[in-house]
Amino acid sequence: MTNHHQESLTTYPKPGPTREQEQVDEEMMSMQMQALRITNSLAFPMVFKAALELGVLHTIVALEEGVWLSPSEIAFGLPTKPTNPEAPMLIDPEPVCAFFVNRGVNSGSLMSQFMLLQSQVFFKTWTHLKDVIHEEKDAFSSAHGMGLYEYVETDEQFAAIFNQAMSDSSTMIMTKILEVYKGLKDVNTLVDIGGGLGTILNLVISSKYPQIKGVEHVPGDMFIDVPKGDAIFMRRILRDWNDKDCVKILTNCWKSLPEKGKVIIVDMVAPSEPKSDDIFSKVVWYGHVDVNTMFGW
User: Fold this and answer.
1) Residues with Cβ < 8 Å from 13, sequence gap 6 or more?
2) How far apart are the first and last CA of the chain?
3) Could you tell me the CA-to-CA distances from 190 to 30, 193, 194, 196, 275 in Å, in that order?
4) Digits of tens for pLDDT over the chain (297 positions)?
5) What gap in Å lies between CA 75 and CA 257, rounded to an integer?
6) Are the C-beta atoms of 151 and 144 separated by less than 8 Å?
7) What does the alpha-carbon distance between residue 256 and residue 190 come to, in Å, rounded to a whole number?
8) What is the DSSP string of the chain?
9) Where are the CATH 3.40.50.150 domain residues in the chain?
10) Which of 2, 46, 142, 255 keeps 20 to 30 A from 247, CA to CA?
11) Which candidate, 251, 252, 249, 290, places its Cα nearest to that of 268?
């Protein structure tokens, strides 16, 4: 008979995660949350679009600056009365909504630009991004069979949204520029290339510089020639064209200016490297993504 000797085993608690491992886990969780946000990224613009279409922000238009209605007052002040009893609990405006409300003459708002970017025309364009790589053509042309500016001429409803977005955007930007820029005080004739509805010229003349001639719409092609003036203004024009075309446009501007004339260019300057925590960098780069999608540069 054999005796077996068995020693008792000492058990130790399983070591917990190190500080380094906890940090890795937190980073992985953060990345997972970012991934989940991407999967549902379409939700926010669609919810906000519904708020605009329902007239939620228009309900606030009549209020004085800094005054906000309660959720119940907003819900029951809509053009179409809500039948959902929970509606007052579902509407909660943020201060940022003020930028989407037109508060009078020369104020402008981002509502029209938002509606433009969320339109079916633009949505269809985004579904053709792969064509930029596969076919070396811009996504807008792939989606609609023609360029953006050509399409504007064929769709009255889209043209109205497009022109309003350009006009409102110009109003918001120029109001700020005119507060600090003094380079127009000696100008008598100002040419706004691609001026659309004449919003910028009208704002410049009516608010600051009445000596400048009234708005006159002049048809033409900036790639052939540019109307003569003391100064030539371009906002969000050059970014829509490649380098070769930009040189052609600027050359025509130079030919149309007097000896001491000037070209005034208003556009966003892209940082050499976007920073994830810099909202201005993000806005500029999103703008470049839009341009590359619509024009393929």
Assistant:
1) none
2) 90
3) 52, 10, 13, 14, 37
4) 455 555 555 555 556 667 777 777 777 777 767 776 666 677 778 878 887 888 877 776 656 666 667 777 777 777 766 666 665 554 555 667 777 777 666 667 888 888 898 899 998 988 888 877 777 788 899 999 999 989 999 999 999 999 999 888 888 888 888 888 999 988 999 999 988 878 888 888 877 888 887 777 888 899 999 999 999 999 989 988 889 999 999 999 999 999 999 999 998 877 777 677 777 777 777 777 777 777 765
5) 55
6) yes
7) 12
8) --PPP-PPPPP-PPPPPPHHHHHHHHHHHHHHHHHHHHHTTTHHHHHHHHHHHHTTTGGGTTSPTT----HHHHHHTSSS----TTHHHH----GGGGGGS--STTT--SHHHHHHHTSHHHHHHHTTTHHHHHTSS-HHHHHHSS-HHHHHTT-HHHHHHHHHHHHHHHHHHHHHHHHH--TTTT-S-EEETT-TTTHHHHHHHHHT-TTSPPP------TTT-----SEEEEES-GGGS-HHHHHHHHHHHHHHS-TT-EEEEE-PPPPSS--TT-HHHHHHHHHHHHHHHHH--
9) 105-180+277-297, 183-266
10) 142
11) 290
Q: Which residues contact 181 (CB under 8 A, 6 or more apart)?
A: none
Write down how long the chain is.
297
- Do the beta carbons of residue 226 and residue 189 sit within 8 Å? no
- Neighbour tally for 74: CB within 10 Å: 21
Q: Tell me phi and psi for residue 28, to 5 degrees.
A: -65, -40
Q: Which fold has domain 183-266?
A: Rossmann fold (3.40.50)
Superfamily the domain 105-180+277-297 falls into: Vaccinia Virus protein VP39 (3.40.50.150)
Q: What distance in Å separates the CA atoms of residue 289 and residue 292, rounded to the nearest whole number?
A: 5
Copy the structure tokens of residue 61.
Answer: 């238009």
